[in-house]
Amino acid sequence: MMRFSFVQSVLGVLLVSEVPGQTDVCKSIEAAISGSVYYPGTADYMHDISHWSQLSTQSSICSVEPGTPEDVGRILRILDTTRTPFAVKGGGHSTNPGFSATAGVQIAMYRFSELDYDAAAETVTVGTGMTWDDVYAQLEPYGVNVVGGRVPGPGVAGFSLGGGFSWLTNQYGLSLDTIVAMELVKPNGVVTNVTQDSDPELFFGLKGTQNNLGVVTRIVFKTFPQGQVWGGQIAYGADQVASVNAATVRFHKITDPKAEVVTGHTFTNGEVNAAVLLFYDAPTAPSGVFDDFLSIPAISRNVSTRSFKDHVASNTENFPSMSGLRVRTALHTVSLLDHSQSVVDAVANETAFWGSRFAAQVPGPFVVSYFMEPFLPDILSHNSEPTAYPPSREATLFPFAVQYAWSSSDMDEYFLDGMRLSVKQITAAAVADGQAIQDVALYPNYALYDTPPSRIFGDNLERLKALKARVDPHDVMGLAGGFKL
After folding, report:
1. Smallest Cα–Cα separation from 485: which of 80, 205, 217?
2. Does residue 15 register a pLDDT over 70?
3. C-alpha–C-alpha distance, residues 346 and 349, integer Å
4. What is the Cα–Cα distance from 441 to 333, expressed in whole angstroms?
5. Alpha carbon distance 452, 419 (integer Å)
6. Cβ count near 231 (within 10 Å)
């Protein structure tokens, strides 16, 4: 079974007992920065290392909260000199072990929590210690918004630097498509501002490679007008799953860019149930857009007109698997070209198959969920500049999330293996449907930790390796986890 030591060996991250210098490294950092260093046994340390999923929470030798970009630079230089493993945590929403957690030095970006809105430039500068909940709350009085996360909790940096599908993606593209500038601490500790004009190759590389090229401390985003929105969640019983599937297939033909849907299938209480998250970027939705979903008999509804901030905040209240059990949670993904009836039905079948298998063999609680996210086919046309992800903008690949949650670390490998097999099965169903997706790029924010980088960056991989060699010749960022170049 996949215990802690197994995860560490797979990711190439050293255990605490193997970290060179151990707490001496932490003492060196403590003496060099204006921020704070915390040690095991303190509340601040626990806050710094905690993650949304216990699967991705690790015990570090210490945690560090840098207060300035220069602090981050000093930390990176010390880590390079001592070759100490580390991780950088923003919101702590990554479910992948070793990506934003470490057995070495945990860097927590909480103190980068400032927001500066520039009405004249129609941009906002956001610290990478913020979550999207914080950003929406601070922008709401100005009547503007950014292309950010759809549920409470995800951090700004991980979401945006990994792509960023949003409730506003149909209108404005991915979150990374709206980035104007980034304050970057390079692996050598130098602080710089990166734009398309200052360093187009580095600007390209930062958008999609997550933590490969340094530590981003601030991001400048385009802003867009934002009023009240309409939407919320609807939950359906097992007897309505077929109707929800059909409605999802039909919605894929809706061309209104203000309308978005996420359809979820979840195995609970011995059967497959369905739920949808509806969103319309106006106080009311036109007739004909969501009628199919609204006409299906439901178990519960929480759909109303509200602020964008409140809409996002409501997205955990009734949606299966996003509330309740999230003790040990993992994500994996398939990239789809279409939400055809056969593929949607295959997703429901997978939910039933793995839910029933786990119910028969797993002693503790668990949740099995699958989420379909139909967007408009032109969402990648909002940005003409190249980005590391997606590696190609010729065809839109729709993200699809497989999310399992369970309670015992003894079951890690069992659930992860099931997730991998389920992804293969859904991929096969899509290929049989005529979708040539077997080798296409996967969404990095959903991909499981052992996904090969070639499946994330595609034809951009060699270009990114050359950029990595220029920016990080000592492979400082290789001391952190992630989809390494």
Report:
1. 205
2. no
3. 5
4. 10
5. 16
6. 27
